[in-house]
Hints:
- The chain is mostly helical and 118 residues long.
- The chain has helices at residues 2-43, 53-62, 65-82, 88-117.
- The radius of gyration is 20 Å and the shape is elongated.
- It starts with a helix and ends with a helix.
- 14% of the residues are buried.
Amino acid sequence: MRILLALALAALASRAQAEEVDEAHRQALQGRDSYWNCLAREYSPDHVKRMSERDFTAVIAAACPSERQNFRVTLMDYLSMQNPGAGADAHLTTANRAIELAQKDILTAFARRKASSN
């Protein structure tokens, strides 16, 4: 009887943990989408057509601080659940890299747009 109870409790704990991981993943994706949408709004205005790549890079680097931080925190939370053995520094590095890649994608789109308009 004890073994069955222990197995049932382990199954419940495992399911609860899986649900926590799924929720953390959903929040990380939501954070990513929020950050991407904010960056896209910075890319859209007509005034960026007159900006240099250097100026636009500075705008993007400073844009969306709360969305960027939310994405960083939710992604780190998810990563820590996925790989609890890795240190917080590794998760921070991964999250910062994801942010860099998002910014790079917007900057690449900007550069292509500039090149095609010349």
